[in-house]
Amino acid sequence: MDQKLSLKERLGYGLGTTGEQFPNFLVQTFLFAYFNLVVGLNAGIIATIMLIARVWDAVNDPIMGVIADRTRSRWGSYRPWAFFATIPMAIFLVLTFTNVGGSTGFKAVYCAVMYILFGMSNTASLIPLGSMANVLTEDSQERAVLGTFRELGSSIGNLAGSILVPLIVTAFVSSGMGEARGYQLTAIVLGILLIVFVGITFFTTKERVVPPKPEGNILKSFLVLKGNVPGICIILFFFFIATAIITRQMFNAYYGMFVLGNEGLGNSLLVVMSIAAFCIMYFGPMMVKKWGKKPVLYIGCGLVILGGLIFWVAGTNGPLNLIASFIVGMGQNLTFSGVWSIIPDTADYGEYKNGHHAPGAMYAIANFGMKMGMTLASSLMGWGLMWAGFDETAAVQAAGVASGLRTFNALSLIIPTVCAILVMIPYKLTAEKSAEVVKALEERRAAEK
What is the reported pTM? Predict the structure, then answer.
């Protein structure tokens, strides 16, 4: 079987991530500020809402991965979930960014319920989309290319979001609709784009690898991590690097307004961070081919740490802040694309060790690691704002707040990324070992027929 994918399939797969990134960018970058500055919830309530959502994800995400693994349809196992789940995802995105008013308690409950339902529908689409890499090809290098196209799609979504979301919100607000209505209409636009772009993935890709149907009860799917040291390493890595990157995105609105004193420059940081991905992604697969996936992850981490250090010394210097954001963006691309390409390899390794095919469960657990990173990011946001003495009700912040926020911005990038490097030390799944694993699985499956 030819394991090399066409350009149409690679682009189609990547554009699905573009679609997913539209609502996820809005949530990751603006939801904390929206709940805080528009709805009026304090940082502690917001952090609690996100923690509750992640506790539920601990149950919901793995179950969705198992369901996708066990699905059989004329469209495959994962494609139908990836596409059709975008409809409720778009609906709950809009409802999450709908300010219903009322008491603080009522608003907190409403925001929590809508955010959790959005997360569940997001899981139902995003986990199957990521799991598709296992059934599009079994070639490790081709998966590295797919990971690059996935991150390309994510970067397009990030770039479009960083440019369009502030423009759309500002346009709606300037028309007299107000911030609340502006965010709601923005969510409607992004929800429509989500459905269209994931639809492109659905119609341009094909699940060419027919996976063995999982046997036994659902709990056996979680054996994918038993003895799977590479899988455990990449999940922990994803948790820490996602914490660093998502904190930077969430914090950007505060950084632009209260550190740089220039909201427009703050928005430019996200644009530059997204543009950086386009400047490095072409070299990603070549770097993987020459040095391997783990060294490239380390290079990406080094760039994130370097960007954090430049942020620390930049102060309000616009060019230096833009350079720091560009460097962090390159690091994000190398680390995230690397994770996406490694997850299918670790799923194969889990099957090799335990005899149970469960790529959806593996991807779901890894995705949960990323969501826990998002939760830690929101908690860090709350702690960082309180530590710096930030007061959302004050017209002018107290002296020293800007300096504290600047320090938090740098350390929230550097410390989690150092942790990400450390947890990858035991990872030993090289390209050669992955090829041996795939060959052994092919022989095992052929013998079982």
Answer: 0.73
